[in-house]
From TrEMBL:
Catalytic site positions: 669 (proton donor)
Cofactors named for this entry: Zn(2+)
Residues the record lists as binding L-methionine: 405-407, 458, 573
Protein name as annotated: 5-methyltetrahydropteroyltriglutamate--homocysteine S-methyltransferase
Cofactor remark from the record: Binds 2 Zn(2+) ions per subunit.
Stated role: Catalyzes the transfer of a methyl group from 5-methyltetrahydrofolate to homocysteine resulting in methionine formation.
Molecular-function GO terms, alphabetical: 5-methyltetrahydropteroyltriglutamate-homocysteine S-methyltransferase activity; zinc ion binding
Catalytic activity, reaction form: 5-methyltetrahydropteroyltri-L-glutamate + L-homocysteine = tetrahydropteroyltri-L-glutamate + L-methionine
Pathway: Amino-acid biosynthesis; L-methionine biosynthesis via de novo pathway; L-methionine from L-homocysteine (MetE route): step 1/1
InterPro entries: Cbl-indep_Met_Synth_N (IPR013215), Cobalamin-indep_Met_synthase (IPR006276), Met_Synth_C/arc (IPR002629), UROD/MetE-like_sf (IPR038071)
Organism: Musa balbisiana
Key words, A-Z: Amino-acid biosynthesis, Metal-binding, Methionine biosynthesis, Methyltransferase, Transferase, Zinc
Ranges of residues in domain Cobalamin-independent methionine synthase MetE C-terminal/archaeal: 400-723
Amino acid sequence: MASHIVGYPRMGPKRELKFALESFWDGKSTADDLQKVATDLRHSIWKQMADAGIKYIPSNTFSYYDQVLDTTAMLGAVPERYNFTGGEIGFDIYFSMARGNASVPAMEMTKWFDTNYHFIVPELGPNTKFSYSSHKPVSEYKEAKALYIYNNTINREVIAELKAAGASWIQFDEPTLVMDLESHQLEAFTKAYTELESSLSGLNVLVETYFADVPPEAYKIITALKSISGFGFDLVRGTKTLDLVKSAGFPAGKYLFAGVVDGRNIWANDLASSISTLETLEAIVGKDKLVGSTSCSLMHTAVDLVNETKLDGEIKSWLAFAAQKVVEVNALGKALAGQKDEAFFSANAAAQASRKSSPRVTNEEVQKAAAALKGSDHRRATNVSARLDAQQKKLNLPILPTTTIGSFPQTMDLRRVRREYKANKISEEEYVKAIKEEISKVVKLQEELDIDVLVHGEPERNDMVEYFGEQLSGFAFTVNGWVQSYGSRCVKPPIIFGDVSRPKAMTVFWSKMAQSMTARPMKGMLTGPVTILNWSFVRNDQPRFETCYQIALAIKKEVEDLEAAGIQVIQIDEAALREGLPLRKSEQAFYLDWAVHSFRITNCGVQDTTQIHTHMCYSNFNDIIHSIINMDADVITIENSRSDEKLLSVFREGVKYGAGIGPGVYDIHSPRIPSTEEIADRINKMLAVLETNILWVNPDCGLKTRKYAEVKPALTNMVAAAKLLRTQLASTK
């Protein structure tokens, strides 16, 4: 059996690409410097796969920002505002599309699937002009070929150029095939590959699907296409695909790329179970037509476990990062070919047994408390309208109240302080003093800007999930387990290996300190249970909802402690609630039921006068708006500006929203500073569909990744726009 990897992380084992990108964007290095780092990373990745014995190695999985943006550039589908005049697209146009610039906004960014990865959304319409404007797939194939490594990706001209360069296999990633597609969408897929049939003649074509099962209708259509030589299926998340192959059969002479090694989690593969699956498939498709593979690209997992020198030894034995998964894929291929590495399989079996029997994994008290939750829906006793009235009497906020989402810029000095404290280079007293000074600076800045509801800026936090995971039981942490979220932005997901509980208060000390510095309301800032779950590497030995309920109980205790400490506004971020939505409609209601229930658990016991906020960002929300309403938060702040205000359309269509709502008025993921007039225009569009007394004014997301030189003028303009409209509204009464 041959072996194959769908894709690989491109940031580098120590985020080399991130630092090269940010240096280039800041004007501290040249394009040649950036390209040198990228070339070195590509070569090391290809060599690693080749050395591990992988037969089918992909070449065009690297990206400077996003693979969909790469395809948009390749097709020359550049929106008019970037003034692209043809030819080869360079970094100036490419990064302006991704990030915006001083004069034009960036393209929309969204999460299409159930991952934390953000895609750049193409802007296609009747007037879009296509031209072959980026030769990246071919140049990277030639680069790989020069290293004696082969394989990968699109469009007639590209295919012809790849064929001329000597490519024998081309991989097309088509994850949308796992979704519930309409008949016309499946017809479009068939038409596209039929039209490419002559161009593909003489080439082996792999259509790779992942993230869920391929529906029977789609399976029937794609496996009937003559131009396709092989089909890649996710057999980890696609739990029904094996049965589908057995019942529907598989076309003779075609290759089946079996995704048995999980590309989205960090647990070591259960090799014995995978061998059983592969043997079943081998009996159907034949030994020479079966290829062992990853379930999806490994870009969704951490790079290399070798770099984790501080991780607990027992837990480390349970794990496999991207580099280890490459080895697992090859070991499975060899085993099926009669060359089983007995020592490797024996060590794997021992690790599987260790994890199942370890007393560190199970806490009976936590399990009982979570099980008891199923008897109630945990709603607050009073409806949201009455609660908002009670809260307004206490908070006395103006109409169109202004706030920010939570974080303020994380400077190099701030990161150094946290790093030194963690390394025991400064005392706890010195650390608290430094963080207190930063909080004081952020509070004073917000007061000077005249923001109504303040935040403490989160200077003590490295990451909105990791910070909480470090203070909860059942979590483990890495030093270099970085995963790309978008562009140069990486996250380091915690590992949930056991039952979760809260040993002590996590945020009360800092929130209480911040509130003592101002007479204005200070938000207590928490990350919600669904977001902690979805932005972690989650244990796979129990249902995800059980782990989520455990986290919800831990956050509930924190909410109650914040309220007892005098914090009147508490934000429980659920930025990742939408991205966890299953791709198949038949599975969505169950997920939304337990996810929304988990959020309500966290705040069901607070007083009517305590205002509960939540925040969501960068997903398509319109199809779950009723579940968002069902969360029963007092105020929701939600991304809006970068998605071209699509959120507002749901209210134009008649959905009534009675709680407070703050659709973002400007995009914080771009360095561009919006004018007062632009923000006021956005607020006016919101007022056309939302009641004045429920509308809040805020940015799209937290300000952690921005610089103060960008934040101060942007917030100044935001507050000015809110005041301008307050004056206009007052004059019309």
